[in-house]
């Protein structure tokens, strides 16, 4: 099915799993961190964390493994492994991400990022992926009170671009992120990564496409 889009005044991108093939990296490193600390881990728990900020993700871990689970130690060890991976440039850029960003630049359509990742880490990831120069603004997980699926982060990204949310196109890979952008009254396209659209997302009628190439073609 061909994707049909209204030409947006701005495009707001999620980062992990949408621009960067980082969710699989994070899932692997959480498992590695837990193993190195001799802690229980379950990939299903990691999948529940996709699209959420660290505060909400830690709540998922504690709910799964109990209130006495050393989530701070897990987070610290994961951070060490992840930062090393970021600096090494070992997080791949998703297919057609660069092509789409360059096309939007040619059309003079401004772009922003709305990510659950904290600003320092988001900037580092985009810098080492050589993508940061394409964005006029970033809205990050440590800059909002309520993370995805609340609309605050997408509303913040739109305000930093100076464009009404209803005139923005949001691109997301996670169910929580799609709900966030829909609640912000944006045109939304889902590009699923490690998670498929859930039943609630399908009921919202949000189009799901196989890659960013579909968005590139639809914007024309």
TrEMBL record:
Pfam families assigned: Hydrolase
Family annotation (CDD domains)? HAD_BPGM-like
Q: Which residues form a coiled coil?
A: none
PANTHER family per record = 2-DEOXYGLUCOSE-6-PHOSPHATE PHOSPHATASE 2, PSEUDOURIDINE-5'-PHOSPHATASE
Protein name per the record: HAD family phosphatase
Q: What is the species listed in this Swiss-Prot or TrEMBL entry?
A: Uliginosibacterium silvisoli
Tell me the InterPro entries matching this sequence.
Answer: HAD-like_sf, HAD-SF_hydro_IA, HAD_sf, PGP-like_dom2
């Amino acid at each position: 099915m061909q994707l049909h889009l209204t030409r947006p005044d701005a495009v707001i991108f999620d980062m992990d799993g949408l621009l960067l093939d980082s969710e699989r990296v994070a899932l692997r490193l959480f498992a590695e961190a837990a193993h190195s600390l001799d802690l229980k881990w379950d990939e299903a728990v990691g999948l529940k964390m996709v699209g959420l900020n660290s505060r909400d993700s830690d709540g998922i871990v504690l709910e799964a493994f109990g209130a006495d689970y050393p989530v701070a130690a897990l987070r610290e060890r994961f951070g060490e492994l992840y930062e090393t991976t970021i600096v090494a440039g070992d997080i791949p850029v998703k297919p057609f991400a660069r092509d789409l960003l360059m096309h939007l630049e040619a059309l003079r359509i401004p772009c922003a990022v709305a990510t659950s990742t904290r600003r320092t880490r988001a900037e580092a990831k985009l810098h080492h992926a050589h993508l940061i120069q394409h964005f006029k603004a970033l809205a990050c997980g440590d800059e909002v009170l309520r993370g995805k699926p609340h609309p605050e982060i997408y509303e913040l990204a739109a305000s930093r671009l100076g464009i009404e949310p209803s005139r923005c196109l949001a691109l997301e890979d996670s169910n929580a992120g799609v709900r966030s952008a829909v609640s912000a009254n944006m045109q939304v396209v889902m590009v699923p990564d490690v998670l498929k659209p859930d039943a609630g997302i399908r009921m919202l009628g949000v189009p799901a496409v196989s890659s960013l190439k579909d968005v590139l073609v639809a914007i024309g």
